[in-house]
Queue: 4 jobs
Job 1
Amino acid sequence: MTKQQLSIQTLPGYSPDIGRQVWCLEDVRGTLISKISDLTQEELDGDIEGLHSIGTLLYHVAAVEAGWLYGEVLCRDWDEEIEALFPAESWADGRLLPFKGESIEQHIQRLQKVRDTLCFHFKRMSEIDWRTSREVEDYHVTPEWVLHHLIEHEARHSGQIFQAKRLLRGK
C-alpha cells in the first residue's frame, strides 16, 4: 500500500513563499467546496438557533476575502466586477447580516471569482512586496499576514458551515 504524501506545495507561477501560502488557502477552499456542493436551498437558507445560515457564512467568507485583498493588500476601491458580486452588506455593528436566497452555484461562483482575483494579484507580487507593510487606518499589515488571516478565517467559518450542515441533516 502506498502512503499518502502530506506536504505543502508551491503553486506554479508564484514566487516560492507566496505560492506555498496560496496553496494553503486553496487547500482550505477545496475542503469547503467538496462539502457544500450538495447543499439544497433549504439548507443554505436554513435557520438554526444560535448559528448563522450557511448562505450567510459563504457570503461573508467571500466578502472578507475581497475586503482584505482590496483594503489591505491593494489599498484601493473594489473593482466594479467584484463589487457587483455583493449586492448587500455582509457586516454591520459587529454582526453578520443574514444573506439568503442564492443558490449554491451562485455562492460557489462568487467565492471562485474573488479567489481568482486574489490569485491574479498575488501571482504578480514580488517577495519584497509580499513582506512590505501597508499602513491602513488602524494598523500596519503585510500581504503575507493577510493570507495567513484569510486561511484562518475561512477554516473557522468552514467548521461552522460543516456543523450547520450536520445539524440541518440531523446527523
Note: The domain at 16-168 is CATH 1.20.120.450 (Four Helix Bundle (Hemerythrin (Met), subunit A)).
Job 2
Amino acid sequence: MDIETVFPELEVIDDDTLRSGVVASWTTAAEDNGIGVTELERFPWFPPAQHELGMAADDVLLVDHVRDVTDCAVGLAEPLTQRDYVPNIDMDTVIAGALVHDVSKLYEFVGMDRTEIGRLLGHPYFGVSVTARADLPVEMAHIVLSHTPRTNVEPATLEAELIRRADEAAATAIHANVLSDLRDT
C-alpha cells in the first residue's frame, strides 16, 4: 500500500523515524482490516456523526478529514513559531500527530457499522495500540488520546493542543455543511 500517495504531507516530515512510524501505523491498520488504497480513500470519516447528520458514507471521507486536520494544525502552528514567547514547536510532531490522530477508525468501523473494537473501546483508545505497534514515541499516543473530549486525557503539549483544536475546526466545518446553526451540534 502506498501511504505516501494517500498522505503527501508525509514528505515534509524531516524525522525519518516519525515518517516511517506514521506509514507503518496506516499500513498496519489497513492490512489488519483488509483495506487497500482505494478502500482507504473511500473510508467514511465518522459514521456515528454522519448518521446523526443524515450524511452518506461517501459524503465525508476519513482521508480528507485527516488531511484537513493536518493542514489546520500546521496553519495554527506556523505563525506561532515566529513568536519569541512561544516555546519551540516541533513541526514534525504536529504533522505526524495530525496524520495518525484517527488511524484507529479503520478498526472501529466496517463501512458505516461499528465493530466490536468501536463498540467496546470507542474512539480513540485503540489508536494507542496502533501507534505503539508502529514504534511511534509516546507523544503520538498522547496526541491520539487527547485530540478529542471523548477521553479524559487533556493535551499536555502545545503540539497536542494544536491538533485537538485543528480536529475541532475540521469537524465543525463538516457540521457547518449540514447545519444552518452550529449551536445545534
Note: The domain at 15-179 is CATH 1.10.3210 (Hypothetical protein af1432).
Job 3
Amino acid sequence: MTAVRRAAQARRAVQNRVASRYRLRGVIDAIDVDDDSSAIASLLATREFPWGITQSLSFALFRTYAVPSIGELLYDTGQFTEATQKRYDDTVLLLDAPIEHGFDSPAGRAGIRRINQMHAMYDISNDDMLYVLSTFVVCPVRWVNAYEWRTLTDNEIHGLTTHYRTLGKRMAIKDIPISYDEFERFYEDYEKRHFAFSSKSRAVADSTLDLLGTFLPYRLLPRWLVRRMSFALMDDRLLTAFNYPKPTAVERILVRGGLKARGLAIRLVARPRTEPLYGRQTPQVRGYPRGYRLEELGTFTPGCPVAHAPAE
C-alpha cells in the first residue's frame, strides 16, 4: 500500500469518526421543541455533553452565591459550609430526576416537590428565584459554545430554554422570560445590579471550591493550583464580587485553552456516547452508596433552601 493510499484511508477514518459524532445532533434537531423540550435537555446533558453540562450547572449555582441575598441565606443555614458534599449530592439528584424520568413521572414530581418544600421554608424573592433559573439557561449555553467539541444549534438552545421555562413554571416563578435572549438580558442586568461582596457569600464560595478540590482529577493537584484554575474561568464581575484575586492573562489562556483543546480532542478522536450518563451515576455524587429516596433528600427543618435549585 502506497503512502498516498494510507494517508487517504487515515483521512477517511477521521472523517467517518467525526461524522459519527454529529449523528445525535441531527436526532436532536429533529425533535419538536414544543412537543418534547425535555428530551432535548436530556440528550444534551446525558449523551452529547455530560461533563460540560455538569460543569456549567455547577458554575451556574456558584454564581448565585455572589448575590448577597442568596449567598447569605445559604451561609446562615450552615449547610453549604458544614455539609457541602451532601448539599451538592442532593441538588444534583433532585434536579436530575426530571431530566432522567420526565417532569410528569413520579420521580420527576417527587424531586420538584422536595425542592419546593425546602424553598417554602424561606422568604425568597421571585427575582432571586428567577435569576437562579436564568443561570441554568445561560451558563450551559455559554459553556458548551466556548469549550465543548461543538456549539449548540438554535433548536438545542430553544429546547434548553423551554425545558427550564417549564421548570420555572413548576416552581411557580412569575414573569419568566420567553426566549433565550430575554433570559440572557435578565441575567446580565441582575448581576450588574446585585452582585456585591459579602463575607458570608465568600465563605460559601470558598467551601464550594474546597469541595471541587476533592473531585478527580483535581484532587491530584495542589489545592492552591485548583483555586487558581478556578479563578481563571471566572469573569471579572464574579471575581470582584467574591474579592478573589484576578488571574494573569497566561493563567486564563492556559486554563481556557486546555478546555478548548479537550473539546477538539473529543471531536477528532473520541467515540460518541451510546448510553446516557445521569447525575446519580457521576463520581462526584458520593454520599449515597446504598441508594436514596428523593422524598428524603435535602432538609426538613430550617436548613438548606437549595436556593439554586429550580422546582415545581
Note: The first helix runs from residue 3 to 21.
Job 4
Amino acid sequence: MKKILLTLPLVFATSTIAHAADNATFSHFYGGLKLGSSSFGDLGSGVTDVTDVDDSAFSWGVFAGIQALPWLAFELGYHNLGEIDLKDVSGSYDAQALTFTAKASYEVAEKVSIFGKMGTQAYEWNANGDNVREDEKNWSPHLGAGLEYQFANNWSGTFEYTWYDDIGGPDVNYFGISAIYHWK
C-alpha cells in the first residue's frame, strides 16, 4: 500500500509533464499589418483658438511578436499614427511611434480571444505650418484592447482600440484591424 501511495505523485507528475510537452506548440513567432484610423485629442488652445482641426487620420503599422505563453505575447512594432490637417490655415500635425507591447489574451470561444495590451513607445511628432516648425521625440505609455479571430491555421485577424498617451501633447486614439501570420 505504501508503494502505491508513493507512486501516485510520481505518476501524476509524469503525466503533467507529458501534457505540458504536448501543449508546448504555443510558443511561436508572428507578424502582422494593421490599418485603421487615429483621432488626435486636444492640440491646445494655441491651435484650436486659431483654427479647426481635421481630427481623423488614416493610420497604419507593422509588428512582430512572440507568443511566449499561451496567454502572453510580446510585440515590437512601428505605427504611423497619421497626419491631421489644420482647416483654416496652412499646417499639419503628424506622429509615429516605435512600440514595445505586452499582450495578454483569453480564449472566450473556439478560435476567438479577447486581449488587453500595455506598453510604451518611442514617438516622434511634427507640427508644420506657416512660421511653425516644431517636433519632439520622447517616450510615453499606451494601453489597448481587442478581439482576435483565427480564421485559418496560420492566420488570424483582430479588431482593436489603442490609446496612446501624450504624443507631443494630445492623446491619440486608434481604432483598426490587423492581419496576422503565425509561424508555428
Note: The chain has one domain: 26-183.
